[in-house]
Automatic annotation (TrEMBL):
Keyword terms, alphabetized: Activator, Cytoplasm, DNA-binding, Phosphoprotein, Transcription, Transcription regulation, Virulence
Domain OmpR/PhoB-type span(s) in chain numbering: 124-221
Source organism: Clostridium boliviensis
Function field: May play the central regulatory role in sporulation. It may be an element of the effector pathway responsible for the activation of sporulation genes in response to nutritional stress. Spo0A may act in concert with spo0H (a sigma factor) to control the expression of some genes that are critical to the sporulation process. Member of the two-component regulatory system HssS/HssR involved in intracellular heme homeostasis and tempering of staphylococcal virulence. Phosphorylated HssR binds to a direct repeat sequence within hrtAB promoter and activates the expression of hrtAB, an efflux pump, in response to extracellular heme, hemin, hemoglobin or blood.
Protein name: Heme response regulator HssR
Annotated ranges, domain Response regulatory: 3-116
């Protein structure tokens, strides 16, 4: 079970947030950024949820110090501030996600799940969906002992889509990110590779690549 650190100086908000998370995660808490940094030296933390305006050390400074020290634990900022400059400052400090108070705790749980999943993908260079494992070190897709080898661009395309399930990517985005900005390929190339992937995984029930007409493509994951 993942361990989440809640950093919040308001006791009521801190206790409420911890209570909402405890059915799903191991939860620990801190009252300010300085206390949180000390805890990071003492125990393993998978994700941090932090307020911005706190005494002793605020959320911005906490995240900045983490990133400068090479600590890449995902951080979600919870704050009452909502101007563009506030968000820009938060992301510039190294924050991964940003939610405005009052918190919708159901949405917070979705965001936590997504960030933990992405952090796991980055660290292991693998995506695991049910019985399927995408291994970026070997450019293979394994299911129940059966290995499907993909061309590099096919694998990169599938890995990109499955890393962000439900997110729509335009054809130009996929061309730029996978083929490069200076590629001579066009959007027909994307369509060709999508069709190849669909053919190779036609019997797959764990995921589906969906065409969003006029926009691009997205992957949907079907958890059993």
């Amino acid at each position: 079970m993942a361990t989440i650190l809640v950093v919040e100086d308001d006791k009521h908000t801190r206790l409420l947030t911890c209570a909402r998370l405890k059915p799903y995660y191991t939860v620990t808490e801190a009252e300010n950024g300085e206390e949180a940094l000390k805890l990071l030296d003492q125990m393993h933390i998978d994700l941090i949820i932090a307020d911005i305006q706190m005494p002793v050390m605020n959320g911005y400074d906490m995240v900045k110090e983490m990133r400068e020290s090479g600590i890449q634990i995902p951080v979600i900022m919870l704050t009452a501030m909502h101007t563009f400059d506030d968000k820009r400052t938060g992301f510039a400090s190294g924050t991964d996600d940003y939610m405005i108070k009052p918190i919708d705790y159901e949405e917070l749980l979705w965001r936590i799940k997504a960030l933990l999943r992405r952090a796991n993908i980055v660290s292991q260079r693998k995506i695991i969906i049910g019985d399927i494992t995408l291994d970026s070190a070997a450019y293979t897709v394994r299911k129940e002992g059966t290995i499907t080898e993909l061309a590099k661009k096919e694998f990169d395309l599938l890995f990109k889509l499955l890393s962000y399930p439900g997110m729509i990517f335009t054809k130009s985005q996929l061309l730029d990110e996978i083929w490069g900005y200076d590629t001579n390929s066009d959007e027909t190339t994307i369509k060709t590779h999508i069709n190849r992937l669909r053919n190779k995984f036609a019997d797959c029930t764990e995921f589906e690549i969906i065409t969003i007409r006029g926009l691009g493509y997205k992957a949907e994951i079907y958890e059993k």
